[in-house]
Design goal:
- The chain has 13 helices and 23 strands.
- By secondary structure, it is α/β, with parallel strands linked by helices.
- It folds into three domains: about 220 residues, 3-Layer(bba) Sandwich (FAD/NAD(P)-binding domain), CATH 3.50.50; about 110 residues, 3-Layer(bba) Sandwich (FAD/NAD(P)-binding domain); about 110 residues, FAD/NAD-linked reductase, C-terminal dimerisation domain (Enolase-like, domain 1, 2-Layer Sandwich).
- Strands 1, 2, 3, 4, 5, 6, 7 and 18 form an eight-stranded mixed β-sheet that branches. The protein has a five-stranded parallel β-sheet with strand order 9-16-10-11-12.
- It starts with a strand and ends in a 12-residue tail after the last helix.
- Bound molecules: flavin-adenine dinucleotide.
Length: about 475
Protein backbone atom coordinates (compact mmCIF):
# COMPACT_ATOMS: atom_id res chain seq x y z
CA UNK A 1 0.00 0.00 0.00
CA UNK A 2 1.13 3.55 -0.69
CA UNK A 3 -0.29 6.92 0.30
CA UNK A 4 0.90 10.39 -0.64
CA UNK A 5 0.37 11.58 2.96
CA UNK A 6 0.10 9.29 5.97
CA UNK A 7 -1.04 10.78 9.26
CA UNK A 8 0.01 8.65 12.21
CA UNK A 9 -2.49 9.32 14.99
CA UNK A 10 -6.11 10.45 14.66
CA UNK A 11 -6.34 13.03 17.47
CA UNK A 12 -7.22 16.72 17.04
CA UNK A 13 -3.82 17.36 15.46
CA UNK A 14 -3.93 14.32 13.21
CA UNK A 15 -7.47 14.61 11.88
CA UNK A 16 -7.18 18.40 11.37
CA UNK A 17 -4.01 17.79 9.32
CA UNK A 18 -5.54 14.90 7.37
CA UNK A 19 -8.77 16.74 6.53
CA UNK A 20 -7.00 19.91 5.36
CA UNK A 21 -4.46 17.91 3.35
CA UNK A 22 -7.37 16.16 1.60
CA UNK A 23 -9.12 19.52 1.04
CA UNK A 24 -5.89 20.75 -0.57
CA UNK A 25 -6.02 17.88 -3.06
CA UNK A 26 -3.63 15.40 -1.47
CA UNK A 27 -4.31 11.70 -1.14
CA UNK A 28 -4.38 10.95 2.59
CA UNK A 29 -4.45 7.96 4.96
CA UNK A 30 -4.90 8.11 8.75
CA UNK A 31 -3.36 5.24 10.73
CA UNK A 32 -4.92 5.10 14.19
CA UNK A 33 -4.57 2.40 16.83
CA UNK A 34 -7.84 3.31 18.53
CA UNK A 35 -11.04 2.07 16.88
CA UNK A 36 -12.43 5.61 16.99
CA UNK A 37 -11.05 8.90 15.67
CA UNK A 38 -10.63 11.78 18.11
CA UNK A 39 -7.50 10.93 20.08
CA UNK A 40 -6.95 11.88 23.68
CA UNK A 41 -8.96 15.08 23.39
CA UNK A 42 -12.21 13.56 22.25
CA UNK A 43 -12.01 10.06 23.73
CA UNK A 44 -10.33 10.62 27.11
CA UNK A 45 -9.54 14.31 27.55
CA UNK A 46 -11.05 17.69 26.68
CA UNK A 47 -14.53 16.61 25.65
CA UNK A 48 -15.48 13.99 28.29
CA UNK A 49 -14.00 16.18 31.02
CA UNK A 50 -16.07 19.15 29.84
CA UNK A 51 -19.23 17.04 29.62
CA UNK A 52 -18.70 16.12 33.29
CA UNK A 53 -17.69 19.66 34.25
CA UNK A 54 -20.96 20.89 32.74
CA UNK A 55 -22.85 18.57 35.09
CA UNK A 56 -20.67 19.72 38.00
CA UNK A 57 -21.32 23.40 37.25
CA UNK A 58 -25.09 22.96 37.13
CA UNK A 59 -24.98 21.14 40.50
CA UNK A 60 -22.94 23.91 42.15
CA UNK A 61 -25.04 26.71 40.62
CA UNK A 62 -28.25 25.03 41.77
CA UNK A 63 -26.82 24.77 45.29
CA UNK A 64 -25.70 28.41 45.33
CA UNK A 65 -29.14 29.58 44.29
CA UNK A 66 -30.18 29.03 47.91
CA UNK A 67 -28.53 32.41 48.62
CA UNK A 68 -30.92 33.94 46.10
CA UNK A 69 -34.01 32.45 47.71
CA UNK A 70 -34.39 29.37 45.54
CA UNK A 71 -33.68 26.03 47.13
CA UNK A 72 -33.41 22.70 45.36
CA UNK A 73 -33.32 19.34 47.09
CA UNK A 74 -29.92 17.63 47.26
CA UNK A 75 -29.37 16.12 43.80
CA UNK A 76 -29.84 12.41 43.37
CA UNK A 77 -27.10 11.17 41.07
CA UNK A 78 -27.49 8.20 38.75
CA UNK A 79 -23.85 7.56 37.95
CA UNK A 80 -24.72 5.17 35.12
CA UNK A 81 -26.72 7.90 33.38
CA UNK A 82 -24.01 10.51 33.94
CA UNK A 83 -21.48 8.13 32.39
CA UNK A 84 -23.81 7.16 29.53
CA UNK A 85 -24.44 10.82 28.66
CA UNK A 86 -20.70 11.49 28.53
CA UNK A 87 -20.23 8.42 26.28
CA UNK A 88 -23.03 9.64 24.02
CA UNK A 89 -21.21 12.95 23.53
CA UNK A 90 -18.01 11.09 22.56
CA UNK A 91 -19.88 8.71 20.26
CA UNK A 92 -21.67 11.54 18.45
CA UNK A 93 -18.48 13.48 17.82
CA UNK A 94 -16.25 10.57 16.86
CA UNK A 95 -18.97 9.20 14.57
CA UNK A 96 -19.06 12.64 12.95
CA UNK A 97 -15.30 12.56 12.40
CA UNK A 98 -15.48 9.16 10.69
CA UNK A 99 -18.20 10.51 8.37
CA UNK A 100 -16.12 13.61 7.61
CA UNK A 101 -13.09 11.43 6.82
CA UNK A 102 -15.14 9.26 4.46
CA UNK A 103 -16.71 12.30 2.76
CA UNK A 104 -13.23 13.66 2.07
CA UNK A 105 -12.01 10.24 0.89
CA UNK A 106 -9.44 10.12 3.67
CA UNK A 107 -8.58 6.45 4.04
CA UNK A 108 -8.69 5.08 7.61
CA UNK A 109 -6.52 2.21 8.75
CA UNK A 110 -7.15 0.74 12.18
CA UNK A 111 -3.63 -0.38 13.15
CA UNK A 112 -0.56 0.51 15.12
CA UNK A 113 2.02 2.10 12.85
CA UNK A 114 5.70 1.26 13.38
CA UNK A 115 8.42 2.91 11.31
CA UNK A 116 10.61 0.57 9.28
CA UNK A 117 12.44 3.51 7.67
CA UNK A 118 11.80 7.13 6.61
CA UNK A 119 9.27 6.06 3.96
CA UNK A 120 7.63 2.92 5.36
CA UNK A 121 5.35 1.94 8.22
CA UNK A 122 4.68 -1.58 9.37
CA UNK A 123 1.00 -1.93 10.19
CA UNK A 124 0.48 -4.01 13.31
CA UNK A 125 -3.00 -5.35 13.98
CA UNK A 126 -4.76 -4.16 17.11
CA UNK A 127 -7.22 -6.28 19.05
CA UNK A 128 -10.95 -5.76 18.77
CA UNK A 129 -13.82 -5.83 16.34
CA UNK A 130 -13.24 -4.62 12.76
CA UNK A 131 -13.92 -0.89 12.51
CA UNK A 132 -16.69 0.24 10.14
CA UNK A 133 -15.18 2.14 7.22
CA UNK A 134 -11.56 1.42 8.20
CA UNK A 135 -9.18 -1.14 6.69
CA UNK A 136 -8.68 -4.14 8.92
CA UNK A 137 -5.08 -5.20 9.27
CA UNK A 138 -4.28 -8.86 9.73
CA UNK A 139 -0.53 -8.46 10.00
CA UNK A 140 2.45 -8.14 7.71
CA UNK A 141 1.04 -5.24 5.66
CA UNK A 142 3.26 -2.25 5.00
CA UNK A 143 2.34 1.29 4.06
CA UNK A 144 4.77 3.50 2.17
CA UNK A 145 4.37 7.26 1.94
CA UNK A 146 5.77 10.42 0.37
CA UNK A 147 5.19 12.31 3.61
CA UNK A 148 4.19 11.26 7.10
CA UNK A 149 2.70 13.60 9.70
CA UNK A 150 3.52 12.29 13.13
CA UNK A 151 0.61 13.02 15.49
CA UNK A 152 1.01 10.35 18.15
CA UNK A 153 0.15 12.69 21.03
CA UNK A 154 0.82 11.95 24.67
CA UNK A 155 -0.19 9.67 27.54
CA UNK A 156 -0.63 10.33 31.28
CA UNK A 157 2.65 10.34 33.20
CA UNK A 158 2.69 7.49 35.71
CA UNK A 159 6.02 7.05 37.51
CA UNK A 160 6.87 3.53 38.67
CA UNK A 161 6.49 4.22 42.40
CA UNK A 162 2.87 5.33 41.89
CA UNK A 163 2.04 2.62 39.35
CA UNK A 164 1.13 -0.11 41.87
CA UNK A 165 -1.28 -1.98 39.60
CA UNK A 166 -4.31 -1.22 41.76
CA UNK A 167 -7.69 -0.43 40.19
CA UNK A 168 -8.06 2.18 42.94
CA UNK A 169 -5.11 4.16 41.58
CA UNK A 170 -6.10 5.76 38.30
CA UNK A 171 -4.85 8.29 35.76
CA UNK A 172 -7.07 10.85 33.99
CA UNK A 173 -8.45 8.13 31.69
CA UNK A 174 -9.44 6.03 34.71
CA UNK A 175 -10.99 9.04 36.45
CA UNK A 176 -13.02 9.89 33.33
CA UNK A 177 -14.29 6.31 33.19
CA UNK A 178 -16.38 7.28 36.24
CA UNK A 179 -16.63 3.75 37.62
CA UNK A 180 -18.26 5.07 40.80
CA UNK A 181 -18.25 8.09 43.11
CA UNK A 182 -15.62 7.28 45.74
CA UNK A 183 -16.28 8.62 49.22
CA UNK A 184 -12.76 10.04 49.32
CA UNK A 185 -10.47 10.89 46.42
CA UNK A 186 -6.85 11.94 46.57
CA UNK A 187 -5.66 13.99 43.60
CA UNK A 188 -1.89 13.81 43.23
CA UNK A 189 -0.85 16.98 41.38
CA UNK A 190 -2.56 20.38 41.44
CA UNK A 191 -2.32 21.03 37.69
CA UNK A 192 -5.27 21.68 35.42
CA UNK A 193 -6.29 18.06 34.86
CA UNK A 194 -6.22 17.24 38.58
CA UNK A 195 -8.21 20.34 39.48
CA UNK A 196 -10.78 19.82 36.72
CA UNK A 197 -11.34 16.19 37.68
CA UNK A 198 -11.26 17.10 41.39
CA UNK A 199 -14.05 19.64 40.70
CA UNK A 200 -16.14 16.98 38.95
CA UNK A 201 -15.78 14.43 41.75
CA UNK A 202 -16.32 17.06 44.46
CA UNK A 203 -19.62 18.14 42.92
CA UNK A 204 -20.70 14.52 42.49
CA UNK A 205 -20.16 14.02 46.22
CA UNK A 206 -16.57 12.84 46.85
CA UNK A 207 -14.39 14.34 49.57
CA UNK A 208 -11.45 15.56 47.50
CA UNK A 209 -7.91 16.15 48.78
CA UNK A 210 -5.21 17.63 46.55
CA UNK A 211 -1.49 17.11 47.17
CA UNK A 212 0.81 19.44 45.24
CA UNK A 213 4.60 19.49 45.41
CA UNK A 214 4.92 23.20 44.55
CA UNK A 215 3.90 26.06 46.83
CA UNK A 216 0.80 26.88 44.79
CA UNK A 217 -1.86 25.28 42.60
CA UNK A 218 -1.36 25.40 38.83
CA UNK A 219 2.40 25.92 38.96
CA UNK A 220 3.51 28.26 36.20
CA UNK A 221 0.22 30.14 35.95
CA UNK A 222 -0.10 33.83 36.95
CA UNK A 223 -0.65 34.00 40.75
CA UNK A 224 -3.22 36.81 40.43
CA UNK A 225 -5.32 34.46 38.33
CA UNK A 226 -4.79 31.42 40.54
CA UNK A 227 -5.69 33.21 43.82
CA UNK A 228 -9.52 33.28 43.43
CA UNK A 229 -9.54 29.66 42.28
CA UNK A 230 -7.27 28.54 45.13
CA UNK A 231 -9.57 30.28 47.64
CA UNK A 232 -12.69 28.57 46.31
CA UNK A 233 -11.04 25.16 46.01
CA UNK A 234 -9.79 25.45 49.59
CA UNK A 235 -13.30 26.26 50.81
CA UNK A 236 -14.93 23.40 48.94
CA UNK A 237 -12.43 20.54 48.80
CA UNK A 238 -11.67 18.45 51.91
CA UNK A 239 -8.02 19.53 51.89
CA UNK A 240 -5.38 21.20 49.72
CA UNK A 241 -1.84 20.33 50.74
CA UNK A 242 0.77 22.51 49.06
CA UNK A 243 4.50 21.81 49.44
CA UNK A 244 3.58 18.18 50.11
CA UNK A 245 4.55 15.05 48.28
CA UNK A 246 3.17 11.56 47.96
CA UNK A 247 6.02 9.24 48.88
CA UNK A 248 4.27 5.90 48.35
CA UNK A 249 1.00 4.07 47.77
CA UNK A 250 -0.25 0.70 49.02
CA UNK A 251 -3.46 -1.06 48.08
CA UNK A 252 -4.97 -2.39 51.30
CA UNK A 253 -8.05 -4.03 49.84
CA UNK A 254 -10.90 -1.57 50.11
CA UNK A 255 -8.65 1.52 50.31
CA UNK A 256 -5.30 2.89 49.23
CA UNK A 257 -2.87 3.80 51.95
CA UNK A 258 -0.98 6.93 50.96
CA UNK A 259 2.21 8.14 52.53
CA UNK A 260 2.09 11.94 52.49
CA UNK A 261 5.11 14.03 53.43
CA UNK A 262 5.13 17.76 54.07
CA UNK A 263 5.10 20.57 56.60
CA UNK A 264 1.42 20.16 57.57
CA UNK A 265 0.99 16.43 57.20
CA UNK A 266 3.56 13.69 57.59
CA UNK A 267 1.48 10.60 57.82
CA UNK A 268 -0.20 7.67 56.14
CA UNK A 269 -3.77 8.44 55.10
CA UNK A 270 -6.36 6.11 53.52
CA UNK A 271 -8.37 7.08 50.44
CA UNK A 272 -10.95 5.18 48.40
CA UNK A 273 -9.34 6.24 45.16
CA UNK A 274 -6.20 8.05 44.02
CA UNK A 275 -5.97 10.07 40.82
CA UNK A 276 -2.41 10.55 39.59
CA UNK A 277 -2.34 13.70 37.45
CA UNK A 278 1.25 14.87 37.43
CA UNK A 279 1.68 15.62 33.74
CA UNK A 280 1.80 13.88 30.39
CA UNK A 281 4.50 12.09 28.43
CA UNK A 282 4.86 12.53 24.67
CA UNK A 283 4.45 9.31 22.65
CA UNK A 284 7.77 9.13 20.82
CA UNK A 285 9.10 5.72 21.85
CA UNK A 286 8.32 2.13 20.94
CA UNK A 287 7.26 2.60 17.31
CA UNK A 288 10.51 2.70 15.40
CA UNK A 289 11.33 6.42 15.27
CA UNK A 290 14.95 5.35 15.67
CA UNK A 291 14.69 3.86 12.16
CA UNK A 292 14.13 7.36 10.75
CA UNK A 293 16.16 10.58 10.92
CA UNK A 294 13.71 12.17 13.38
CA UNK A 295 15.40 13.79 16.40
CA UNK A 296 13.80 13.39 19.82
CA UNK A 297 14.97 15.72 22.61
CA UNK A 298 15.80 14.77 26.20
CA UNK A 299 12.18 15.40 27.28
CA UNK A 300 10.88 12.98 24.64
CA UNK A 301 9.50 15.66 22.29
CA UNK A 302 10.15 15.41 18.57
CA UNK A 303 12.13 18.43 17.40
CA UNK A 304 10.46 20.51 14.69
CA UNK A 305 11.04 23.80 12.90
CA UNK A 306 8.41 26.50 12.38
CA UNK A 307 7.00 24.54 9.43
CA UNK A 308 6.57 21.41 11.60
CA UNK A 309 9.37 19.65 9.73
CA UNK A 310 11.40 17.15 11.72
CA UNK A 311 15.04 16.44 10.92
CA UNK A 312 13.77 13.73 8.55
CA UNK A 313 12.77 15.40 5.24
CA UNK A 314 9.82 13.00 4.79
CA UNK A 315 8.38 13.38 8.28
CA UNK A 316 6.53 16.25 9.95
CA UNK A 317 5.42 16.28 13.60
CA UNK A 318 2.55 18.12 15.28
CA UNK A 319 0.63 18.34 18.53
CA UNK A 320 1.60 16.96 21.93
CA UNK A 321 4.46 14.87 20.54
CA UNK A 322 6.00 18.03 19.05
CA UNK A 323 6.23 20.01 22.29
CA UNK A 324 4.47 22.23 24.79
CA UNK A 325 1.88 23.52 25.31
CA UNK A 326 0.07 20.19 25.12
CA UNK A 327 -3.28 21.58 24.01
CA UNK A 328 -5.74 20.45 21.38
CA UNK A 329 -6.03 23.81 19.57
CA UNK A 330 -2.25 24.07 19.32
CA UNK A 331 -2.18 20.53 17.85
CA UNK A 332 -4.84 21.42 15.27
CA UNK A 333 -3.04 24.68 14.34
CA UNK A 334 0.21 22.81 13.80
CA UNK A 335 -1.59 20.08 11.87
CA UNK A 336 -2.93 22.65 9.43
CA UNK A 337 0.55 24.15 8.96
CA UNK A 338 2.04 20.72 8.19
CA UNK A 339 -0.73 20.00 5.65
CA UNK A 340 -0.24 23.36 3.95
CA UNK A 341 3.55 23.03 3.81
CA UNK A 342 3.24 19.54 2.26
CA UNK A 343 0.78 21.00 -0.26
CA UNK A 344 3.47 23.53 -1.22
CA UNK A 345 2.21 26.60 0.64
CA UNK A 346 4.63 28.94 2.47
CA UNK A 347 2.98 28.42 5.90
CA UNK A 348 4.78 28.64 9.22
CA UNK A 349 3.95 28.76 12.91
CA UNK A 350 3.65 32.48 13.64
CA UNK A 351 0.92 32.63 16.28
CA UNK A 352 1.41 35.43 18.79
CA UNK A 353 -0.97 33.94 21.31
CA UNK A 354 -1.87 30.36 22.16
CA UNK A 355 -4.71 30.53 24.66
CA UNK A 356 -4.73 28.23 27.68
CA UNK A 357 -7.86 27.57 29.69
CA UNK A 358 -8.35 25.80 33.01
CA UNK A 359 -12.01 24.81 33.14
CA UNK A 360 -12.35 24.89 36.90
CA UNK A 361 -14.77 27.06 38.87
CA UNK A 362 -13.84 29.88 38.47
CA UNK A 363 -12.19 29.34 35.10
CA UNK A 364 -8.72 30.65 34.39
CA UNK A 365 -7.58 31.67 30.92
CA UNK A 366 -4.61 33.45 29.48
CA UNK A 367 -3.10 34.22 26.10
CA UNK A 368 0.04 35.87 24.79
CA UNK A 369 2.81 37.21 27.00
CA UNK A 370 2.53 36.67 30.76
CA UNK A 371 4.04 38.96 33.40
CA UNK A 372 6.38 36.15 34.40
CA UNK A 373 7.61 35.67 30.82
CA UNK A 374 8.13 39.42 30.44
CA UNK A 375 10.18 39.47 33.67
CA UNK A 376 12.30 36.54 32.51
CA UNK A 377 12.95 38.21 29.17
CA UNK A 378 13.79 41.51 30.92
CA UNK A 379 10.99 43.15 28.94
CA UNK A 380 9.29 46.18 30.45
CA UNK A 381 5.50 45.90 30.46
CA UNK A 382 2.55 47.65 32.06
CA UNK A 383 -0.25 45.69 33.66
CA UNK A 384 -3.84 46.94 33.86
CA UNK A 385 -6.23 44.98 36.06
CA UNK A 386 -10.00 45.24 36.29
CA UNK A 387 -11.51 43.54 39.35
CA UNK A 388 -14.86 41.93 38.72
CA UNK A 389 -16.29 43.46 41.91
CA UNK A 390 -16.74 46.53 39.71
CA UNK A 391 -18.68 44.62 37.03
CA UNK A 392 -22.46 44.87 37.07
CA UNK A 393 -22.87 41.52 35.37
CA UNK A 394 -20.52 39.70 37.73
CA UNK A 395 -22.45 41.17 40.68
CA UNK A 396 -25.78 40.18 39.12
CA UNK A 397 -24.42 36.66 38.64
CA UNK A 398 -23.21 36.55 42.25
CA UNK A 399 -19.70 35.77 41.02
CA UNK A 400 -17.45 38.75 41.58
CA UNK A 401 -14.45 36.47 42.24
CA UNK A 402 -12.76 37.36 38.99
CA UNK A 403 -10.41 39.78 37.33
CA UNK A 404 -9.31 40.70 33.84
CA UNK A 405 -5.82 41.96 33.16
CA UNK A 406 -3.94 43.20 30.14
CA UNK A 407 -0.18 43.11 29.69
CA UNK A 408 0.73 46.15 27.62
CA UNK A 409 3.80 47.45 25.84
CA UNK A 410 4.46 50.82 27.52
CA UNK A 411 5.89 52.44 24.38
CA UNK A 412 3.37 51.41 21.72
CA UNK A 413 0.46 50.62 24.09
CA UNK A 414 0.02 47.43 22.09
CA UNK A 415 -1.62 44.57 23.99
CA UNK A 416 0.83 41.70 24.40
CA UNK A 417 -1.00 39.39 26.74
CA UNK A 418 -4.22 38.90 28.67
CA UNK A 419 -5.22 36.94 31.74
CA UNK A 420 -8.73 36.33 33.02
CA UNK A 421 -10.05 34.49 36.04
CA UNK A 422 -13.78 34.18 36.57
CA UNK A 423 -16.87 32.41 35.41
CA UNK A 424 -16.71 31.92 31.63
CA UNK A 425 -13.08 33.09 31.31
CA UNK A 426 -12.50 30.35 28.73
CA UNK A 427 -14.98 31.93 26.33
CA UNK A 428 -13.88 35.51 27.07
CA UNK A 429 -10.21 34.93 26.25
CA UNK A 430 -10.99 34.50 22.54
CA UNK A 431 -11.44 38.28 22.14
CA UNK A 432 -8.02 38.85 23.67
CA UNK A 433 -6.45 36.31 21.29
CA UNK A 434 -7.87 38.16 18.31
CA UNK A 435 -6.74 41.53 19.70
CA UNK A 436 -3.19 40.27 20.26
CA UNK A 437 -3.01 38.62 16.84
CA UNK A 438 -4.37 41.75 15.14
CA UNK A 439 -1.81 43.94 16.89
CA UNK A 440 -4.47 46.04 18.64
CA UNK A 441 -3.44 48.72 21.07
CA UNK A 442 -5.26 49.39 24.28
CA UNK A 443 -7.20 52.33 22.73
CA UNK A 444 -8.67 49.96 20.08
CA UNK A 445 -10.01 47.71 22.82
CA UNK A 446 -11.25 50.41 25.16
CA UNK A 447 -13.01 52.27 22.38
CA UNK A 448 -14.78 49.21 20.94
CA UNK A 449 -18.33 49.21 22.31
CA UNK A 450 -18.93 46.09 24.38
CA UNK A 451 -22.47 44.91 25.14
CA UNK A 452 -23.82 45.77 28.59
CA UNK A 453 -24.20 44.07 30.96
CA UNK A 454 -21.72 41.34 30.06
CA UNK A 455 -18.50 39.99 31.46
CA UNK A 456 -16.92 40.83 28.09
CA UNK A 457 -17.04 44.48 29.18
CA UNK A 458 -14.26 43.69 31.66
CA UNK A 459 -11.92 43.30 28.66
CA UNK A 460 -12.61 46.88 27.53
CA UNK A 461 -12.69 48.15 31.11
CA UNK A 462 -9.26 46.69 31.88
CA UNK A 463 -8.06 48.71 28.89
CA UNK A 464 -9.72 51.79 30.40
CA UNK A 465 -7.91 51.11 33.67
CA UNK A 466 -4.67 51.51 31.73
CA UNK A 467 -5.91 54.77 30.20
CA UNK A 468 -7.18 56.03 33.58
CA UNK A 469 -10.73 56.36 32.21
CA UNK A 470 -12.58 53.41 33.78
CA UNK A 471 -16.05 54.59 34.85
CA UNK A 472 -16.53 52.18 37.73
CA UNK A 473 -13.05 52.62 39.15
CA UNK A 474 -12.13 55.83 40.90
CA UNK A 475 -8.45 56.56 40.86
CA UNK A 476 -7.55 59.79 42.69
CA UNK A 477 -5.32 61.99 40.56
CA UNK A 478 -1.70 62.11 41.67
CA UNK A 479 -0.76 65.56 43.02
P1 LIG B 1 -3.68 12.84 20.81
O1 LIG B 1 -5.01 13.48 20.98
O2 LIG B 1 -3.02 12.30 22.03
O3 LIG B 1 -3.86 11.70 19.73
C1 LIG B 1 -2.82 10.84 19.39
C2 LIG B 1 -3.41 9.61 18.74
O4 LIG B 1 -2.34 8.86 18.19
C3 LIG B 1 -4.11 8.69 19.71
O5 LIG B 1 -5.43 8.47 19.28
C4 LIG B 1 -3.30 7.39 19.69
O6 LIG B 1 -4.10 6.23 19.77
C5 LIG B 1 -2.63 7.49 18.33
N1 LIG B 1 -1.35 6.77 18.24
C6 LIG B 1 -0.25 6.94 19.02
N2 LIG B 1 0.75 6.14 18.58
C7 LIG B 1 0.26 5.46 17.51
C8 LIG B 1 0.82 4.49 16.62
N3 LIG B 1 2.09 4.08 16.72
N4 LIG B 1 0.03 3.98 15.64
C9 LIG B 1 -1.26 4.40 15.51
N5 LIG B 1 -1.84 5.33 16.31
C10 LIG B 1 -1.07 5.84 17.29
N6 LIG B 1 -6.53 20.25 25.66
C11 LIG B 1 -7.21 21.40 25.41
O7 LIG B 1 -6.82 22.13 24.50
N7 LIG B 1 -8.32 21.74 26.13
C12 LIG B 1 -8.77 20.98 27.14
O8 LIG B 1 -9.76 21.31 27.79
C13 LIG B 1 -8.10 19.78 27.44
N8 LIG B 1 -8.52 18.96 28.42
C14 LIG B 1 -7.88 17.79 28.65
C15 LIG B 1 -8.36 16.97 29.66
C16 LIG B 1 -7.73 15.77 29.93
C17 LIG B 1 -8.26 14.89 31.02
C18 LIG B 1 -6.61 15.37 29.15
C19 LIG B 1 -5.94 14.06 29.40
C20 LIG B 1 -6.13 16.18 28.14
C21 LIG B 1 -6.76 17.40 27.88
N9 LIG B 1 -6.30 18.27 26.89
C22 LIG B 1 -6.95 19.45 26.66
C23 LIG B 1 -5.09 17.97 26.10
C24 LIG B 1 -5.48 17.44 24.72
O9 LIG B 1 -6.23 16.28 24.88
C25 LIG B 1 -4.22 17.16 23.91
O10 LIG B 1 -3.42 18.32 23.86
C26 LIG B 1 -4.59 16.76 22.49
O11 LIG B 1 -5.39 15.62 22.47
C27 LIG B 1 -3.31 16.50 21.67
O12 LIG B 1 -3.67 16.14 20.39
P2 LIG B 1 -2.71 15.25 19.45
O13 LIG B 1 -3.42 15.16 18.15
O14 LIG B 1 -1.35 15.80 19.50
O15 LIG B 1 -2.63 13.82 20.15
Amino acid sequence: MHSQVVVLGGGPGGYAAAFLAADLGLEVTIVEADPRLGGTCLLRGCIPSKALLHTAKVISEAEELADWGVEFAKPSIDINKVRARKEEVIETLSGGLAKLADARKVKRIHARGVFVDSKTLNLEPVKGEPVKGASTIVGGEQLTFDYCILATGSVPAMPKFLNIGSPRVVDSTGALALVDIPESLLVVGGGYIGLEMGTVYHELGSKVTVVELADGLLPGADRDLVRPLAKRVKERFANVLLNHKVAGLKDVGDKVEVQIEGPELNDTVKFDRVLVSIGRWPVSKGFGLENTKVTVNERGFVEVDTQQRTSDPNIFAIGDVAGDPMLAHKAAYEGRIAAEVIAGKPSAFDAQAIPAVVFTDPEIAWAGLTVEEAKKAGREVEVATYPWQASGRATANGRTDGLTKWIIDPQTERVLGCGIVGSGAGELIAEAVLAIEMGCNVHDIASSIHPHPTLSETIAFAGEVHLGTATEIYKPKRK
